[in-house]
Amino acid sequence: MTPEDASLAGLRARAEAAAAALPPLVLARGPVAATFAPGGHGLRRPGIGEDFWQYRQAHEGDTAAAIDWRRSARGDMRFVRDRERQTARTAAIWLGRGAGMAYAGQAGTGETKMGRAKLLSLSLALLLIRAGERVTLLGEPAGTGAAQATKLTAGISMIAPLDHDDDAPLRAAARGAQVAVLIDDFLNDDPRLDEFLQTMSGVGSTGVMLQILHPDEEDFPFEGAVRFQTLGGQRHDTRDAGGLRAAYRARLDERRDALAAAASNAGFLFGTHDLGQPASEALAWLHGVLSAR
Fold first, then answer.
1. Can you give the CATH number for the domain in which 228 is found?
2. Could you tell me which of 75, 42, 45, 43 has the C-alpha nearest to residue 57?
3. pTM
4. d(CA 250, CA 216)
5. Which of the residues 47, 98, 120, 238 has the least number of beta carbons within 10 Å of its own beta carbon?
6. Is residue 74 part of a domain?
């Protein structure tokens, strides 16, 4: 067995074990469940029951027959009437590949953010496939069943951090009837993320954003003279790292507020997770906000 095979087999085994603790994941056909997580930001539900109508703004590709002309006559925009709960969804998973995702702590010997993101992604995919849902990596063809599970295991295992920090989901990958699951540290302010979110909103799709950080990035435990250097090459020297703690935490809070607002504006839900917590907590959160209950 090659090292690559061993790594792939190990990832699959750990993902299977994590997924075994939860029931198969049937995707909600309406908005993601904003009420599942304290502080979550999601869509308001436009109705209840097994079947309800929801209007969305028409976009390129909608036919004239699809437009609700009576609703559109109230203003200048054209609207399409969707029956949300009857629309089959496809789950599309995206993992950030910025260089910072390789961070494993000051010693560099622990679990990386990328490693945790891979585990959560594959575990989630297996839960979806067990429920017969269609799932894919963002931008690739969707499928279900054992063959798709094998394909996703290989695809996720091959994802590796880049040598720079710039990475974001691309708006060209946005599709209608899609539920996007974005997993990243989201520390780099890339305008392409907002473009993707707004494009998803425009085609009537939704999703979740899960921010993964290392405990060092949450607590900023550094003291004294420290040279901070990102894996993407940025550097900052200080003689009093402890004196930066309050400002750092304030910046992190600001960043999270901005991410939550961007997610909410697009009908997405934003959540956080750090490597000091069990992976099972993040997986349970994802299961809860995405599931049909």
1. 3.40.50
2. 75
3. 0.77
4. 15
5. 47
6. no
Q: Which of 54, 80, 267 is nearest to 179 (CA)?
A: 267
Count of alpha carbons within 13 angstroms of residue 233, beta-carbon side: 5
Q: Along the 293 residues of the chain, how does pLDDT read in single tens digits?
A: 445 455 889 999 999 999 999 999 999 877 776 544 433 333 333 333 334 455 666 765 566 766 777 767 777 777 676 544 445 789 999 999 999 999 887 766 689 999 999 999 999 999 999 999 999 999 999 999 999 999 999 999 999 999 888 999 999 999 999 999 999 999 999 999 999 999 999 999 999 999 999 888 886 655 454 445 555 556 655 544 555 667 778 888 999 999 999 999 999 999 999 999 999 999 999 999 999 65
- The token duo for 200 is 């998803």
> In whole angstroms, what is the distance from residue 93 CA to residue 169 CA?
10
Tens digits of residue pLDDT in 57-110: 676 556 676 677 776 777 777 767 654 444 578 999 999 999 999 988 776 668
Q: List Cβ neighbours of 212 (8 Å cut-off, separation of 6 or more).
A: 113, 116, 117, 120, 183, 184, 185, 273, 274, 275, 282
Q: Which domain holds residue 145?
A: 3-47+88-288
Burial class (CB in 10 A: 0-12, 13-18, 19+), 191: exposed
Q: Is residue 63 part of a domain?
A: no
Beta-strand pair 134-137/90-95? parallel
> Three-class SS of residue 292?
coil
